[in-house]
Each structure stands twice: as C-alpha cells, then as structure tokens.
Design brief:
The chain is an alpha+beta fold and 147 residues long. It has one domain (25-140). It contains five helices and four strands; from the N terminus they run ααααββββα. It has helices at 2-17, 31-39, 49-56, 58-64, 125-140; strands at residues 66-72, 78-87, 90-101, 104-107. It has a four-stranded antiparallel β-sheet with strand order 1-2-3-4. The termini are far apart. Mean pLDDT is 87; it is low at 14-20. It comes from Prolixibacter denitrificans. This is Lipoprotein.
C-alpha cells in the first residue's frame, strides 16, 4: 500500500513539473499583485527549469512586467489577462485566466476549449471563442522562448 502511494505521489509530482503554470501563495486584491507573486517562485521551491530561470531573473522580470490588456468576461467571475515580460532582448508574451474568489483575484487553472459549446459558461459562446483565439494569437509570437 505504501509503495503504491509513493508511486502515485511521484507520478503527480512529475505531471505537475512538466507544466508551465503560475501559482500564488494567496489570492490578492489586484491582478497585478497576483501576477507578481505567482510569476516568480519563492526561494528554494522550484518545480522545473522554468521556475528556476524565473527565480534567477526575478528582478528583471518584475521590472519589465507589463499588463497589456485585461478583459473581464460578462456574466462570470473570469478575466483574461494579456501580459509580457522580458529577460535581456527576449520578450515573453503570456495569456492567463484569473478568477475572482471572495473579492480577490487568483489564477484560474481551468482549461477552456474553443470546441466547447459554451467555453466560459456564460452563454456567450461567440465572444468566448474570440477571447480564446485572442489569447492564442497573443502567445504565438513568443512560443519559441522556452521560459
């Protein structure tokens, strides 16, 4: 039983370490605060190479972090944020969904598919699909940057 539990734990850790995601200690009052606490990992806690890279370049990343656009989804507690940051001459563009929970913003871990009938669950499937396409196009220009 302990061996099976250990194997499952290792599997979950490997699965999580293979994803490029953001995390925050606690939800924040603003999206910008949540981004700053989630973009750069806490000292000594790195899941993967991206976390380590962001930690090593945290000052430059935080200095160059720009929220380019925030799009709140009508009829929901979701917001799509298009942001960028740079290290040296490379500019990374990211799209991230946020959810407002108890009046504070946190990262949304839900995957929204363009192929769903109502991807965001607010009844406006056309608008949702346009937002998902916009997020994909935003990230497309810097997809070659591994970090």
């Amino acid at each position: 039983m302990k061996k099976l539990l250990f194997i499952n734990l290792v599997g979950v850790i490997l699965l999580l370490s293979s994803c490029d995601y953001l995390r925050t200690q606690f939800p924040q009052d603003t999206i910008e605060q949540t981004l700053k606490t989630g973009l750069v990992p806490i000292n000594g806690y790195f899941w993967n190479d991206v976390d380590y890279f962001r930690h090593q370049h945290r000052d430059e990343i935080l200095k160059t972090l720009k929220v380019e656009e925030k799009i709140e989804v009508k009829g929901s507690d979701l917001c799509l944020v298009l942001f960028s940051y740079s290290v040296a001459s490379q500019i990374k563009k990211r799209a991230q969904w946020f959810r407002k929970v108890d009046g504070k913003w946190t990262f949304c871990a839900t995957y929204f598919s363009q192929y769903d009938d109502d991807p965001l669950g607010n009844g406006d499937k056309e608008s949702a699909k346009k937002l998902l396409e916009k997020a994909d196009k935003w990230e497309e220009s810097s997809k070659e940057i591994w970090w």
